Amino acid sequence: DAKTTQPPSMDCAEGRAANLPCNHSTISGNEYVYWYRQIHSQGPQYIIHGLKNNETNEMASLIITEDRKSSTLILPHATLRDTAVYYCIVRVGISGTYKYIFGTGTRLKVLA
Amino acid sequence: EAQVTQNPRYLITVTGKKLTVTCSQNMNHEYMSWYRQDPGLGLRQIYYSMNVEVTDKGDVPEGYKVSRKEKRNFPLILESPSPNQTSLYFCASSFRSNNSPLHFGNGTRLTVT
């Protein structure tokens, strides 16, 4: 199973870009990378996902390296409300079944 | 509103007393799954279901049962709860397509004494 590795914690100044890295060196060719965040003990919230190309939505951008072994989630203008634990997840599947592999995430603290 | 609904949000029980945590989704998702979250261990999958009447074990299935009699519901059953099942539980659902994100419920905090 593809596993993900993230730094345990990061700080970011309010208004600056937050760049959260993730390594997924064992990812297979058709496995997507998903990013979620969890605020306190609420249910994880979907942010963005991608396969090969860079992706952008209203919340964030996702940069995936050409070899697909790592990715970076970018929050372009972090606010205090972005303080959360961010999870980089790979969805792995065999023979029509699949599961999501969660790591322990990065605790992002946005500082005023 | 599209959502995954878990009940109850909080539950305190005693060892050995059977309990059920309900999960319902209104998005017509084929895939449903249960996770538990413990400090330092992240989210671990308990069971999942690819469709009605199809369930499979995740990484930590011991002590749990599930059923999928209808597409929208996926209850988690603890036949004889033990203190090591004290945890935060999340239900999630998605479409089966390769490109579909998981939608999570708000969680159930279970304490077994």
Overall pLDDT level of chain B: 95
Ends of chain B: how far apart?
36 Å
Please write the string of helix (H) and strand (E) elements of chain A.
EEEEEEEEEE
For the sheet with most strands of chain A, the description reads: 6 strands, mixed
Q: Supply Rg of chain A.
A: 14 Å
Tell me what you see in this structure:
- The complex is a heterodimer of chains A (112) and B (113).
- Chain A is mostly beta strands and 112 residues long.
- Chain A contains no helices and ten strands.
- In chain A, strands 1, 3, 4, 8, 9 and 10 form a six-stranded mixed β-sheet that branches.
- Helices cover 0% and strands 50% of the residues of chain B.
- In chain B, a hairpin with a 2-residue loop joins strand 5 and strand 6.
- Chain B is globular, with a radius of gyration of 13 Å.
- The termini of chain B are far apart.
- The model of chain B has no long low-confidence stretch (mean pLDDT 95).
- The interface between A and B is medium-sized, with 23 and 28 residues.
Itemize the secondary structure elements and their pairings.
The complex is a heterodimer of chains A (112) and B (113).
Chain A: E1 9-13, E2 18-23, E3 33-38, E4 45-50, E5 55-56, E6 61-64, E7 70-75, E8 84-94, E9 97-102, E10 106-111
Parallel strand pairs in A: 1-10
Antiparallel strand pairs in A: 2-7, 3-4, 3-8, 5-6, 6-7, 8-9, 8-10
Chain B: E1 4-7, E2 10-13, E3 19-25, E4 31-38, E5 42-51, E6 54-57, E7 65-66, E8 76-78, E9 87-94, E10 103-104, E11 108-112
